[in-house]
Specification:
11 helices; TIM Barrel; six-stranded mixed beta sheet; alpha+beta; about 500 residues; 3 domains; Immunoglobulin-like
């Protein structure tokens, strides 16, 4: 009898895997500890995760949180610097070892290292004109999945001089400095003999240029120091568009990591005192347009504790997905639930990203993150919705494709399988929106537990489409898309 039961369990397991059934692993994405700007230690954070039923934590420690303003023309020498703790300053290797040590001590919670990067910021206005403004300090990216400390050290963030090459402003400064040094050496060594006739005498006078020579040497030396101390990616060049951010994306993806836009609609506007010279304005505008303007990133913060509009049907996210289905992008973009956790009183389960994995391991979570096999929720404090099923079958096949996957449609109708429940099996009304290729396709109102199979027409021949769902009541739940193609 026992053998029969075990056999049935094995059959059920493999049958479930064949249908795309996965374990649901609850994750907290974008978490800080006191290794950077969080308030909890690694161990305290893991204990908090266990108390809140969190299965995996994806960290986003500050990579380098350093801002400076220098006075022209010696910005690299005469400057004020504001810096907060970061893994780059405290040691990448030390931080990675700390994560591994915590993982060994708390094997029940999957810990995944990652960093929050400030690719670029810039200044406008004048300190003396009392209109100095610091831009884009919150226009950041999350980096996950890099293997070694050296991979992290190669991230080209502003202020990280190890990887930022000299550019024309530095080269111009260095050239001018070398010219002044050469001129100074010439003037110090130069002398000129001049004959001066007095009434009865002819006097030879030697004229030297040591004072201007030493001045030229000093100025040239300062300019050389300035050229070497100021990064080519400096904050005095104005808005550089996507270039610094695309540089981070390309560097991370080339090493097998994943880059995510953080809080695309985040904004910041406040003033800080700058002594007798008045105040400095700190400003970051919402920037959802970065999604269609950049390429190669894995995803972005799609659900967080703020008013998010770019995930609405036809918004920036759908524009990116449509570009992918039309062949204008090499990869789609996945929407994560982004927490931005620095410690209590914020709840660690305020925003959850739920991964569909074959087993509970770091590798499985990273694979789901890269493949788009996850959904995001903003649960109630006492319960949460569970997306028990969102998969598509087509072309007469018995296989059901989950989020992040692709279906090959035939002439038959597509079948969309939906399942919505709660973590405590309570009955609650919900409102579900089905989006098809950027347009609101259907609205379903129901009561949990809910399951249904919808039949919809396949795409036109030679066309690719996508489906995704969003629950708007009783709280928000956002899925990743499933793609459907049909041959000509």
């Amino acid at each position: 009898m026992r053998t029969l039961v075990c056999g049935l369990l094995v059959i059920a397991f493999f049958h479930g895997e064949a249908e795309g059934k996965f374990l649901q692993v609850k994750g907290a994405v974008h978490v800080h500890t006191n290794f950077s700007t969080g308030t909890l230690s690694l161990e305290e954070l893991v204990e908090e995760a266990q108390l809140n039923g969190i299965d995996t934590v994806i960290f986003a420690e500050n990579f380098l949180l350093r801002f400076e303003y220098g006075l022209f023309p010696f910005r690299g020498l005469v400057k004020r610097v504001v810096e907060k703790p970061s893994v780059l300053r405290r040691g990448i290797e030390r931080w990675l070892q700390s994560v591994e040590a915590a993982q060994a001590k708390f094997p029940a919670v999957i810990l995944i290292p990652g960093v929050e990067v400030v690719p670029y910021y810039y200044w406008t206005g004048s300190l003396f004109g009392r209109n100095l403004t610091l831009h884009d300090t919150q226009k950041n990216m999350l980096v996950v999945g890099l293997d070694t400390a050296m991979d992290y050290l190669r991230i080209p963030a502003i202020g990280h001089r190890r990887v930022v090459s000299l550019q024309w402003p530095n080269l111009l400064t260095l050239a001018l400095g070398m010219a002044l040094v050469g001129l100074g050496i010439f003037l110090v060594r130069a002398e000129r003999e001049q004959k001066v006739r007095l009434k009865r005498f002819l006097v030879k006078v030697r004229k030297r240029y040591r004072v201007p020579g030493w001045l030229a040497l000093c100025c040239g030396g300062l300019l050389l120091l300035e050229g070497f101390m100021t990064s080519g990616l400096n904050p005095y060049r104005g808005d550089l568009g996507m270039k610094p951010y695309q540089g981070v994306i390309d560097a991370v993806e080339s090493k097998g990591g994943m880059a995510f836009w953080s809080f695309p609609e985040a904004w910041d506007f406040h003033e800080v005192a700058f002594g007798p010279l008045g105040t400095v304005t700190i400003r970051t505008d919402p920037h959802p347009t970065v999604l269609p303007q950049s390429h190669g990133y894995t995803g972005f913060g799609a659900l967080y504790a703020d008013n998010v509009t770019f995930t609405e049907p036809g918004g920036e996210w759908d524009r990116v997905l449509l570009e992918y289905t039309e062949g204008h992008r090499q990869r789609p973009a996945w929407g994560i639930g982004e927490l931005g956790y620095h410690g209590p009183p914020k709840r660690l389960d305020e925003i959850l990203t739920v991964f569909l994995v074959a087993d509970r391991s770091r590798e499985a979570v990273l694979d789901a993150l890269k493949s788009g096999r996850f959904y995001s929720i903003q649960p109630k404090p006492d319960y949460r919705l569970v997306l028990e099923d969102f998969s598509i079958g087509g072309n007469g096949s018995s296989e059901w494709i989950p989020m992040g996957g692709a279906v090959e449609a035939g002439d038959r109708s597509l079948r969309i399988r939906l399942g919505v429940g709660t973590n405590d099996n309570r009955q609650v009304p919900f409102v579900l929106r089905l989006v098809r290729s950027g347009k609101l396709f259907r609205v379903i109102e129901g009561m949990t537990p809910f399951s249904e199979i919808l039949e919809v027409a396949p795409p036109d021949r030679g066309r690719r489409e996508f489906f995704r769902i969003e629950l708007v009541k009783p709280h928000r739940l956002l899925s990743n898309p499933i793609f459907v193609g049909r041959e000509t």
